[in-house]
Amino acid sequence: MKRYVFLFEEAKGMSRFELGGKGYGIVEMVAAGLPVPPGLVITTEACKDYYKNGGEMPDGLMRQVREKIDELSRRVGKRFGDPKSPLIVSVRSGAPYSMPGMMDTILNLGVNDDVVRGLILSTGNERFVYDAYRRFIQMFGRVAMGVPGERFDRRLEELRERLGVKSDQDIPANELRGLIEEFKRVVRESTGRELPQDPWEQLELAVRAVFNSWNNPRAREYRRYYKISEDLGTAVNIQLMVFGNMGPDSGTGVGFTRDPSTGEKRLYGEYLSNAQGEDVVAGIRTPLSLDVLKGELREQLEEVARRLEQHFRDMQDFEFTVERGRLYILQSRNGKRTANAAVKIAVDMTEEKLITIEEALMRVSPYDLVHLLHRRLDPRVKVNPIAKGLNASPGVATGKVVFDVTEADQMSSRGEKVILVRPETTPEDIKGVIAAQGVLTSRGGMTSHAAVVARGMGKPAVVGCGEIRIEMESGYFVTNKGLKVNKGDVITIDGSTGNVFLGEVPTVEAELTTELRTLLKWADERRRLGVRANADTPEAARRAREFGAEGIGLCRTERMFNAPDRLPIVREMIMATTDDERRRALAKLYELQLRDFKEIFKVMRGLPVTVRLLDLPLHEFLPSESQLLVELHEISASGAPKAEIEKKEVMLKKVRQLQEHNPMLGHRGCRLAVSHPDIYKMQVRAILRAAIEVRREVGETVGVQIMIPQSVDSNELAHVKKVVEEAAEETFEELRERIDYKFGTMIETPRAALTASKIASVVEFFSFGTNDLTQTTFAFSRDDAEGKFLPIYLEKKILADNPFETIDREGVGRLVAIGTKEGKQANPRLEVGICGEHGGDPRSIYFFDEAGLDYVSCSPYRIPIARLAAAQASLQVKEVIPVTA
Amino acid sequence: MKRYVFLFEEAKGMSRFELGGKGYGIVEMVAAGLPVPPGLVITTEACKDYYKNGGEMPDGLMRQVREKIDELSRRVGKRFGDPKSPLIVSVRSGAPYSMPGMMDTILNLGVNDDVVRGLILSTGNERFVYDAYRRFIQMFGRVAMGVPGERFDRRLEELRERLGVKSDQDIPANELRGLIEEFKRVVRESTGRELPQDPWEQLELAVRAVFNSWNNPRAREYRRYYKISEDLGTAVNIQLMVFGNMGPDSGTGVGFTRDPSTGEKRLYGEYLSNAQGEDVVAGIRTPLSLDVLKGELREQLEEVARRLEQHFRDMQDFEFTVERGRLYILQSRNGKRTANAAVKIAVDMTEEKLITIEEALMRVSPYDLVHLLHRRLDPRVKVNPIAKGLNASPGVATGKVVFDVTEADQMSSRGEKVILVRPETTPEDIKGVIAAQGVLTSRGGMTSHAAVVARGMGKPAVVGCGEIRIEMESGYFVTNKGLKVNKGDVITIDGSTGNVFLGEVPTVEAELTTELRTLLKWADERRRLGVRANADTPEAARRAREFGAEGIGLCRTERMFNAPDRLPIVREMIMATTDDERRRALAKLYELQLRDFKEIFKVMRGLPVTVRLLDLPLHEFLPSESQLLVELHEISASGAPKAEIEKKEVMLKKVRQLQEHNPMLGHRGCRLAVSHPDIYKMQVRAILRAAIEVRREVGETVGVQIMIPQSVDSNELAHVKKVVEEAAEETFEELRERIDYKFGTMIETPRAALTASKIASVVEFFSFGTNDLTQTTFAFSRDDAEGKFLPIYLEKKILADNPFETIDREGVGRLVAIGTKEGKQANPRLEVGICGEHGGDPRSIYFFDEAGLDYVSCSPYRIPIARLAAAQASLQVKEVIPVTA
Known about the structure:
2 copies of one chain form a homodimer. The first copy, chain A, has 885 residues and is of the alpha/beta class.
């Protein structure tokens, strides 16, 4: 017989996976001697077996629970259903990874009609007792018996209206007694069953409800978003109730041992007197900040915070209840935090000697850094906010106002940027938050649902913004200055200050904080992988260098061809009918490219720069056939001169001649160099001349790496190498000066990876082009897939991740591993990098480290992410560290 | 010091690769005691070293030659330059694989002014001696000294005109003496050098010329066509001259031990009296058929033929010369033959116990069978030929008349079918023969250049058609009935009968000969690989079955959707705006598909049939955007009713919505089934119902295999499997009858191959779709590549073969090998086949056998080829057997 149930003090040393996060925290606190109400935990194993059994309670589970409850009864002198000394417990879910608000909890379990009577006698607090009972019925009815929550809410609301009171606290005891009867009727009418009076029956139903809540739709949505496994299951914590709602000397609150928004080392949190825990989380009454709390309770909380950090060696998020002046800690867990705070806390704790540098590096999720590197409001621009709320999650977001969650989701999937505006958010709204750029709420505090969830996703949020009044039905909100903002209007929110602006507000680049610089320096000291940038412009190159890039791993030359001032010349070259015309166009492009390269090389001097020669098929530089057809019809209709029409017709002919069925698999990359070597020669001459001239001008130049796209075969590369060498020799003779350069290739076709050992003998470096390699390995055209079938594949879980974001280890990754291993075996001096978008994705970076690559190259904004992820890779991280905020 | 030179009798046991084909044949004949003029052979090694040295004679080569010539001199009592007893030799090329007429030969080497004088004294035959000398100058001047051949030809022609004679034989001795002086002057004026008088100098220049001829353009073209390695080099044979031009009791000829056109066992060949060998090959004088040769020479030739076959154990093609009544065999080699003859000879020789069944199977190149399976003239159609010539190479060809080789090449590369019509062909015309569907010449015999080359390529040829007169310059030919046929007119030639027809003549399917059936039966008994057909129609299925297919490995359903009567319904389905409309369209398609499948299943009953569900993206069934744009403009301009315009506009919108950047990598195959399961369900229901109904109707049905295209992942297949199972269960319930079926997938994306071990656990069979797999592995869109850059890649030898024709072992093949091995490891009962075009390509079939596949599937016409190639694969053939004809 499996053992599923443990008293808290019996479970010491068991893992988070067995006990769930909440149970683990409690067990640890009990062991550390913190004031925790006693109780027991049902392990996640029971939940997993429950699902294995197809929703049947595992054998012997409830018997084990009863034995442990009996032990608990003996220790605390209270028993289920005993009117004189009733045992009253909370039943809470607790999954291995925190999923705030996603699963269910039942408080005050054990209360029934008899207990109510006894409690009134023993406490003399009739109101409290009735309030506890109606809360129990409300929660139990909804969670364990499936009564729609609003049926209770409506009754409560009607009662408040009838009495003319605002808060539930103002409802007198006798009215609550009547409400209880009404609630019981609601239960009866909704379910056809009576509210169970037997606490044991209540308990079994509650445990079942918690198990079921693991699989509710919002919990599954949350796990999908955060990539949490479906197989973990939840534990159940059954804990002696303590009551924060026993009067003004009671209360409940949440605390953070450090500021979860900034990381500052100070007690942070909120307290609500005469309330139960759910009141705080639900964000219905705005609580008191711990900052203004004084006296003994504050001192006790400070001491608890210190002991929690010493014990858990991380910032803690804890719940506490004060029952008639006595403090209890109900749970503690590693506190979610903003990316900024995560970095600061990791670095501070290292400096406090609480954790090691290695631990600090593991404390920050690289995905988090994304948020730190985003833009902030341009300080030079003075715009007045239209409203101000709480700065719940930092960052700036701009988008169209939308009130409805489904609408937000639809607009976002059409590519529109939206800001979700709601009085408050609930777990049901998670889809809308995912879809939105940011969230604005008029109610709730820093620990309200909206705030917690937005921080978790690194999305800007302004919450509790009482200065706006939201008229959801009518589709607008009004500020306290009378400004009306309609659905669809664009607003900007600044989650770092709490300001709300009308329209789009200019932003500037982020800067790295001191703590982040420290953390990244530590990362640099520990990583094996090099980190380079994908950058095509001097500005991007500059930014990459600031962010710590060790070179440019991919400088695309397409943009240089596509710029509005170049395109006409490129078209001249394509449309040339004589060699002479063609040469003249190429000569012009040469001058322009020379200038481009010189600028970039100056910025990057001292570092390697890999320039990829032209990859695009020529027709990409011409208008499309249907565009030309439409234009032709228009100018013919408007009676344009014949010469103009003829010119268009010539172009149409050329477009048709160059047209391809599948341009992605067409006449492009080095295939173009085989048929039209002139273009590559022009580019090579411009690159090498630029490098030499930069050396002459500033005394230092870059390490030139010339990279050939789309190769499939060593013969092909040998052929193109000759073309490159000829152009190089021409340049060296012309300038009477030589320069070293490396010749290499993208590995972006499956065949190149599969024949890497031969290719490696012709080149000095590989750079995996995992974007194209993913397209060909899957036979998925990214342009077509992401708009059409890929979302369905992700939704149906046919694919766990979008392979264009996170490397597909089994398919594409296998080719990368084969190519790297066999390439290096054939040519031990071969340098191997990756310059697809995966180069900036942490989980992909762990893979590239494992596969033995030398460096990753990614967009400038992802450089810090890559530095950190590369360090974590060196520390043998295999799976990504869950986002911390 | 390497040994390069061997007397014939010293070289016994050396290989064809060292001695070349001609040298090998001579050495073997010497060993077998046949009457061969003595001589020596310079090995191919010398030629290879010559090229390694950059065109310098290898060290010591000429010294070794001199030593062996001295030995020869001692044996025959003749010495170079000795007027009394001069040594006169032929110098012939001889590559390991025969390249008829492609390389150079020099006869009568050793003749000079002194020798001429001496010879006239000793032979008393002034005319013969002068003729020999002028022939020598003519050949030596052209081949070894680079004098343009027509300069000699013109002088000769002028002389004939002046004398008013038709044949060179009619030129009297004194005129020949004058001609010799003229020829010497031509040499002097063309080269600035005198004709060398020293035979040793002549010899060195001749050897050099033979080496050089290995690399002449037409030899290289020939090797490219026949896929002969560039690295083999040629040997040089130096052999004592015997003279067929010493008078009426002399002559020269070529013989075949069996009929090279039909394979019949009878002496076959031609004889030209008082001539040297070159006269026969050049096809200038029409020789006498050996059929009409009588007397002692015929008997001697019959005896020689018998001994040759006994020795070489294959049909021989031999050259002989009769010098003053004495027969010499100059060379013997395996005779080229038509495909038909190859089969017959292989089977006959097996039955004669000359060779084993295994040898017989190796004697026929599977590529040859292509020609046997082609169509022949419909015997029911009576058309009168416009002319009749020699039936030099069997088969029927239709095309436009073209006289110019370059024009033929150009027209063919534009996709036009042409018949090359020439008075005769020369090695320079090879490009035109390659380009043409067939060849028609007015001169030359069965062993003329045109005949030999056309047979070699398996192209129909009618030669020596004296009934037509060709006016090349004016661009027409005239038949002896006065019919004028212009350039560009369509004619049909039947190489099996020698008939020439005007216009296109109807043809019928080929039938397998008894011998071919025997050979294929032997092949079937020895092959491991199964052979199935790609067939989408009942007709194709019937043909496949006749040709020995063991099932259908690929039945595409695209054609069923694309047929003119179906397309409107398919469009209805795509354009449906309500579920109901869509269902109605699908129901119609269901009925049509049901009928299609029933017909095919009836034909194939008792055998497995693999049906591939719809693969194409939906937009392929709609008109293109530009087509619709043009149509819209047209109907708007013509004032069409609004409703019609609107309908087009709706379709344009749909087309734009479905449009893809890269349809090949788009929303197609099973991706379509994931998003639109209805179509696959309809197809599965039609397939299974058809199978059950066929069983009910004829008592037997097919082994149904349902195949999913374009898969990338095991989850995806598990998902589609559910869709298939649902449709299957529906059908079984509806019909109250079940049927077994197999569920499998194409492996046509690299990822599917790379994750085969997982996929194998979800399916019962794999079928490699090597067409698509080649496209994605190379990132080559076939449609784009073959028209644009692939020809350049083949021409520049970046790729040795077109990977869409012959499997790319290193890249695509590696994926096939990985997929097969890992798939079978994971699921030992997995059935693995291949249904790309490579399934009918012999070299690819050898690979698939090696890689452990279970069967190949190919077009019906390729079934016999695949059967033979599969047997050869089982006999461990790695490289293809050179075509025999």
